[in-house]
Amino acid sequence: MLALPVQADNTQIAFVVHEKLPSVEQLLQKTAERLDITAELRLLNNPPPTGWQSYAAVVLVGPQALEAWSFAESPPAVAVFVSRDAVAAVSSKLASALYLEPPLKRQIALAKSILGADRPLGVLMQDKSEWKNSGLSSLPLQQSLVTPYFVDQYENLNRALLDLLKNSHALIGTYDTELYSSTNIKNILITAYRQNKPLIGPSSAYIKAGALATTYSDIDDVAHRLSEMLLTGLKEHVWPDADYNPYFKVRYNQQVGRSLNLLLPDAESLASQLTKDEREH
């Protein structure tokens, strides 16, 4: 692997965590190797004797680290494995961030690639403010064939879901842990499959539960993008804006695909095509 030296040999970065996990250790190792720097894993409650300022930058891993971090006298802080909503609350204090979830546009592109570009799709959301923040509200509904259904405009979640499924070929899941909670997801999936309608997304965690497909970024993808962000910030002193990860893969639930009689495209080829389309637009 080609190493990208940041600056002096003594450049150190701290990966700050609420608890030590193997996945975080992998992320640290892969990022450090890419940048040819020294990196340390530190618990939130265990700062170095010389203080956090002894590091060139800190990587806040996960929502607990982000929420508990004191930005006073802090080196540049980059957050990973955090949602866009969590970042929005402290965005002015962060140097940069890499969102955990895939963008809604990407999930819609995935659905169209599997089901066909002319199929109407539905997105379930709590209210209109979420739709405005999705980046899709400016597109004419007839042109995009994507219609939002707002739960707060219905008697309950099930009524909104039934209306969506009646008019759509698939439900596009959003990264909303309240809407797609463990309590709701079983009902959402059962209701959707009774009408032979698949759920796309919201994330890789839902594939095992019964979602048909999703895009997702694994540890290698996160290390790839994080190393680019750190390289730019530490070397050029210009930090990239908080954003979604441009590196990702496609994952299917093959059993669900067979039950719906769908011929699923090759996952690796589809991820490459979606990446190419994003870069061109």
Quickly list its features.
alpha/beta; four-stranded parallel beta sheet; 11 strands; disordered N terminus; 281 residues; five-stranded parallel beta sheet; Rossmann fold; elongated
What do you see in this structure?
This protein has helices at about 20-35, 65-70, 85-90, 105-115, 130-135, 140-145, 155-165, 180-195, 220-235, 255-260, 265-280; strands at about 10-15, 40-45, 55-60, 75-80, 95-100, 120-125, 145-150, 170, 200, 215, 250. It is α/β, with parallel strands linked by helices and about 280 residues long. The chain has two domains: about 10-100 and about 220-235, Rossmann fold, CATH 3.40.50; about 105-215 and about 250-280, Response regulator (Rossmann fold, 3-Layer(aba) Sandwich). The strands form three sheets. Strands 2-1-3-4-5 form a five-stranded parallel sheet. α8 links the parallel β8 (about 170) and β9 (about 200). The radius of gyration is 20 Å and the shape is elongated. The model is unreliable at about 1-10 (pLDDT under 50).
- CATH C-level label of the largest domain: Alpha Beta
User: What would the principal axes of the Cα set say about the shape?
Assistant: elongated
Number of helices: 11
Helix content: 25-40%
CATH topology of the largest domain: Rossmann fold
The N- to C-terminal Cα distance equals: 29 Å
Compute the gyration radius: what is it?
20 Å
- The number of domains: 2
Order of the strands making up the biggest sheet: 2-1-3-4-5
Query: Can you give the mean pLDDT?
Result: 91
H and E order: EHEEHEHEHEHHEHEHEEHEHH
The CATH superfamily name of the largest domain is Response regulator
- Report the structural category: alpha/beta
Outline the low-pLDDT stretches: 1-10
Beta-strand proportion: 15-25%
Please give the number of β-strands.
Answer: 11
Please outline the major beta sheet: 5 strands, parallel
